Structures are given as C-alpha cells and as structure tokens.
Amino acid sequence: MDTTTITLNILQALQAMSLFELIGALAGVIGVWLAARQSVWTWPLGLVSVAMYVVVFYDARLYADMGLNAFYVVTSLYGWYVWLYGGKGHTERKVGRVGKLELLVLIILGTAFTLGLGYFLENYTDADLPYTDSATTAISLIGYWMMAKKRLENWIVWLVVDTVYVGVYTYKELYITSVLYFIFLILCVIGYRDWKKSLEEDKKAQLVA
C-alpha cells in the first residue's frame, strides 16, 4: 500500500469518525496522561472516555470491548475512591507493587475469563475476533484493577494489551482509535518511569523517617 492510498484511507476515516469516537479518544489521552502524573482527575476523564466507547464498540461489533467499557464506568468510580482514600488512615493511596499471590489469582481469572467469553462470543454472537477480543478484555481488566490499586506493574500490562489493540483497531478500520492506542503505548512508558520514581522516593522517605 503506497503513501497516497494510506493518506486517503486516513482522510476517509476522519470523515467517517463519529463524534463519540473523537470525544472518547481525546478524553482517553488526557485521562491516561493524568494517570501517569498520578492525578485523581484521571478517573472523571476516564468516565467520559469509556462512556463514548461503549457506543463506538457496539457499532463495530466488538461486544467484549463494549462490555469492558461499560464495566469501566463502575470501576472508574471505585478507582477514584481508592486513589483518594485507599491509603493508610484513609489518605491518598501511594504507588505499590503487585504481590505474587495477587498476580497468580489475576492470571487464573484472566485465563478463565478469556476462554469462557471467547467461547460464548464465537458460538452465540456475530462478534468479530471473539478470542482476541476476549483476551484483550481480560488483560485490560487486570490492568484496570492494578491501576485502581496503584500497582506499578499496571503499566506493563497496558503496554502489552495496547500493542495488540493497535493491530485490532487498524484491522477494524477504527484508525483514530488505533492512533489513540499508539499514543497510549508512549504514555505507558512515561507512566511506568514516573510511578517507579515515585515508589523509590516513598521508600527513601520511609527509611529516613
């Protein structure tokens, strides 16, 4: 595919892009940037983004992603609360690391979720890419849980799943959303770096105290 064809495809995608996808993409980028900065305002921005993408993914017949974003509406409220009051003495929560048992449980639940939802979507709906859709949904749920708990490793999880999403959304001709997830990849690197620095600074402060 030559450069001219690619440019025409992008222009056509921009023309066809719904207002929902535009708002969702913009709110998503700002929300993830705020998450990297550990700003609690990431959660209300996230609420706007996921609400828009419920509509976008329904139109694209990516039902697992649609359900995922509907679930995010609830978990965003939970994450908002935890970041504000989930620390010691109901103070702001600090960055931490995921425990071995917690990680094992998340992997088992994620695998079971992928197989179960993938089977359902493949056999009982007209969903496109049922198992890929289910796997990215499961991994995203794990990442979202880790982010709500302020686990450093959430950024690694998002880095993996966002790489897959770039390919999926390009395949589904959701070009703006594909670009959005490429930007997320960059923000994941920034987020991991900044959160790791914050974690190390908190540990040094505790040693001094």
Automatic annotation (TrEMBL):
Membrane topology field: Multi-pass membrane protein
Protein's cellular compartments: Cell membrane
A Pfam family: NMN_transporter
Keywords: Cell membrane, Membrane, Transmembrane, Transmembrane helix, Transport
Sequence intervals crossing the membrane: 12-34, 41-60, 66-86, 98-119, 155-172, 178-195
InterPro entries, per database record: NMN_transpt_PnuC (IPR006419)
Protein family per UniProt: Belongs to the nicotinamide ribonucleoside (NR) uptake permease (TC 4.B.1) family.
Protein function: Required for nicotinamide riboside transport across the inner membrane.
Protein name according to UniProt: Nicotinamide riboside transporter PnuC
